[in-house]
Amino acid sequence: MSQRQILVTSALPYANGPIHLGHLVEYIQTDIWVRFQKMRGHRVIYVCADDTHGTAIMLSARRNGISEEQWIDTINRQHQQDFAGFDIQFDQYGSTHSAENRQLCAQIWQQALSKQLIASRDVQQLYDPEQKTFLADRFVKGKCPKCGAPDQAGDNCDKCGHTYSAIELVDPVSTISGAAPEIRSAPHFFFQLEKCREIVENWIARPGTLQSETANYLRGHFLSDTLRDWDLSRTAPYFGFEIPDQPGHYWYVWFDAPVGYIATTWQWCQAHGESLNDWWRNPNAEIHHFIGKDIVYFHTLFWPAILHTAEYELPTRVHVHGFLTVNGRKMSKRDGTFIRGRKYLEHLQPAYLRYYYATKLGDNQDDLDLNVPEFVEKVNSDLVNKVVNLVARCAKFGAQTGLAAQYPDDEGRFAYAAAQSDAIAAAYDAGELSRAMRLIMELADRANQFVDQAQPWKLAKSPDQTERLRDVVTITLNLYRQLAIYLAPVLPTLQQQSAELLGAELQDWRMAQVPLLNQTIGTYSHFMQRLDIKDVEKMIEETKHENASAAATSDSGAVAPTATVDSDAALLAEPLAAECTIEDFAKVDLRVARIVSAEEVPEARKLLKLVVSLGGDQTRQVFAGIKAAYEPADLVGRLVVIVANLKPRQMKFGLSEGMVCAAGGGGTEVFLLSPDSGAVPGHRIH
RNA sequence: GGGCCGGUAGCUCAGUUGGUUAGAGCAGGGGACUCAUAAUCCCUUGGUCGCGGGUUCGAGUCCUGCCCGGCCUACCA
C-alpha cells in the first residue's frame, strides 16, 4: 500500500455562536476519517478555522460593545475548547482573520484581475443612514411590491413567492436601526464564473469528485444555464479585508472563507517547516473537503474556479453530508433540541455521540436523526454490553495470568477478524462509517461467543487449568484488541484506555494482524459507563429552559447573555414601530378568546384553522400562521388574545375573521399570548 | 410547479452487475450461564420488500404511472 498525502478540511464554523450537535456531525465525521487515514500510515493533515467576517459578526460585536477582533477571539477560544471536548483533533485551527489569509486573498485577487475575470459595475443598494451601512437583504423589511404583504425580507416574499430586489420593497425599514433606508449606488466587483465553465464542468464530471446526487443538482440547477457573475465585494462598513487599491470595498466573506483552508494549511506548513505548494500545488496530494449540503453551491462552483484561477489543485473530493434532526424533527430551541456541544459535555461522554453518529453516517447527504431512545440503546448494547464488557468479563483473569508467550489455537478466530481488516478499512475510506461499525460489531459478537464457549470462570476454579485459562485470556484480549484498533478512529479514548491496560500502543491499523503476546495485563476499571436516558432527557430539559430564559435569539448566533440581562436580539430583529396615540391604540380591539377548535389546513404550509369563542354564541374563524409551532390538539380549550375588530380577509382556504396575538420570529419560534387566570372570553384588553 | 433523495420485520437499517427459501442489530417470546456494567450465549416469533402496470425463464433490484415522507428551488434547470 503506497502512502497517500491527504489534506482534509471541515467547513469553517461561523464565529457568531457556539458549536452545537448539528455542527458536530461534520467535525466528528471528518475527525473519524482523518484518524483512520493516519492509522493507515498516510501523511494527513486536518485543518480548519473560524469564519470570522461579514455583517453579522460586525453587528454581534457592536451589540456586545466590543471590537470585532475581541469578539472573534473569544468565539475562537470557545470553538477550540468545544472541539477538543469531543476529541476532534485538528492539526491546525486558524481564523480567516489572519495575516496569511489576507495575503493569500490579495494574491488570488491579483491573479483573477490579471486573467480578466473580475468585472466592476454599479449596484443600487439600500443604505441605512443611521448605522451608516449598506443593508444585506436579510436586514431589510418592507411590503412586498407585488402583493403588499408586510414584513418581507429584501429578496422574496414568503406570502406570494414573488422575488424582487431589495430596492423594490415598498416602505422599507432597516431591521438594524429601524431607520428608513436610502437607495445608494456603489461599485461592486464581480467574478465572471461563466469564463471558468469548462474547468468547473470537467471537475464535476470527474469520477470521485462528488456524490452523484450533488453532481446532478449542479448540472440541473446551474450548469444548464449561463453561470451568473458572482458579487465578490461588499461596501464599507463591513468587517473583513479591504480590497487592495479599492478603499471602502471589502471582499465578501464567501470569498475569503474558503481561502482560509489554504491560509490555515500555510500556518501549519510554517510551523512544521513544510511547503504550501507541496499540499496545494501538488497533483499527487489529495484535497478532501467535508461540508454540509447547505454550502454545496460555494464549494463546487466558485471554489474550483477560484482555485484554478490561482493555479492551485482542485479538490479531490467534496464529501457532502445532511443535516441533523432530533427525534425526527428539525432541531428547535423550543423543543430543547438545539443542544450546544458544551451542554452535551456537561452530561454525557463524547464517545457516545461519536459512536452513534458513526453508526448513522454513510457516504450520502441524507439527514441524520438523533433519536434519543435509539441513541441510548445503541451505545449501551453495542459499546458497553458487547465491546467494553468483553474486557470487563476477563480482565480479572488477565491480571492473574497475563498473555501467553505463544498464540494458542483459537480455531481461526483471530485470523478471521484480521481478514476483516480490508473490508472495514474500505468502508472507512469510502465514508461508509455505518457499514464499518456493523462489521466491527459482528466481530464483537463472535468474541463474546468464544468466551461463552471457553468458560474461563470454570477454568479459574481448578488450579490445574491455569495454562488453559491463560490461553483463553490471550485469545479474548487479542480479539478485543482487534476491536479496539478497528474502533480507534471513532473512540480515541477507548484506544488509549485499552493501550494502557494491555501495555502496548494501538496506533497502527496493521497491528490487528499480529497478536500481542507475553505481556502482563493491568488492572481494569470501567472504560465506559452505561448511558441513562434520564441524563439525555435532563440535558434536553435544561436546554429548553435556558433557551426560554435567554430570550431566544432569532438566528443561531448570539452567545448566551448573562443571566440577568436579556439579549437585545429580538428588539434588533424588529425595531420599535413609529409612535402612536392612545386613540390610535383604542382603534384596535383586543379580546380574550377561547379556542374551541383547531385543525390543520393540509394545503397550507404554515396555517392552522382556528375557531375561537368570544363568549356566548360569538365565534370567529381565524387562520393563524402557527402550524410549525403548535399541535392543534394542544390548542383546543386554551385562552388567547385576538384582534377582534380586524377587517376580515379572504384567504385561499377561507375567510379569516381576526388575528391571534403571538410573539416570536416565526416558524417554530412562535409563542401565543395567554392572559393570567381569571380572564374570560370577551374581556377587552386595555 | 420543478428537481433530488428515500419508502424492505415493531424500531434502525443491509441487500453487490436482476438469480435458489429476503438478511442483521435492537425490541418481543422461550431456554442456558453466572466471568461481566441486570451484561453474555443458544433457540425463536415476526416481512404482499409503499401501490398498480410492464420487461424477463426469473424483479426488493430494471422501465413506467401513482401515493407518502424529507430536502432543495421557483415563472421554472
SSE topology sketch:
Elements: E1 5-10, H1 21-39, E2 43-50, H2 55-63, H3 68-85, E3 92-95, H4 99-114, E4 118-128, E5 133-134, E6 140-143, E7 170-174, E8 182-191, H5 197-205, H6 212-223, E9 230-231, E10 233-235, E11 249-251, H7 253-272, H8 277-280, E12 285-292, H9 296-309, E13 317-321, E14 324-326, E15 329-330, H10 341-347, H11 350-360, E16 368-370, H12 372-401, H13 413-419, H14 421-429, H15 433-454, H16 456-459, H17 466-487, H18 492-502, H19 533-549, H20 569-573, H21 582-586, E17 590-600, E18 608-613, E19 619-624, H22 632-635, E20 639-643, E21 649-651, E22 654-656, E23 659-660, E24 662-666, E25 669-672
Parallel strand pairs: 1-2, 1-12, 2-3, 12-13, 14-16
Antiparallel strand pairs: 4-5, 4-8, 6-7, 8-9, 10-11, 14-15, 17-18, 17-20, 18-19, 20-23, 21-22, 24-25
The structure holds one RNA strand of 77 nucleotides.
Q: What report would you give on this structure?
A:
The protein is α+β, with helices and mostly antiparallel strands and 686 residues long. It has four domains: 5-115 and 196-228 and 248-321, HUPs (Rossmann fold, 3-Layer(aba) Sandwich), CATH 3.40.50; 118-190, Beta Complex (Methionyl-trna Synthetase, domain 2), CATH 2.170.220; 341-513, Isoleucyl-tRNA Synthetase, Domain 1, CATH 1.10.730.10; 560-672, Nucleic acid-binding proteins (OB fold (Dihydrolipoamide Acetyltransferase, E2P), Beta Barrel). Helix content is 40%, strand content 18%. A five-stranded parallel sheet has the order 3-2-1-12-13, sandwiched between helices. Strands 19-18-17-20-23 form a five-stranded antiparallel sheet. 43% of the residues are buried. The chain binds one RNA strand of 77 nucleotides through α6, α12, α15 and α16.
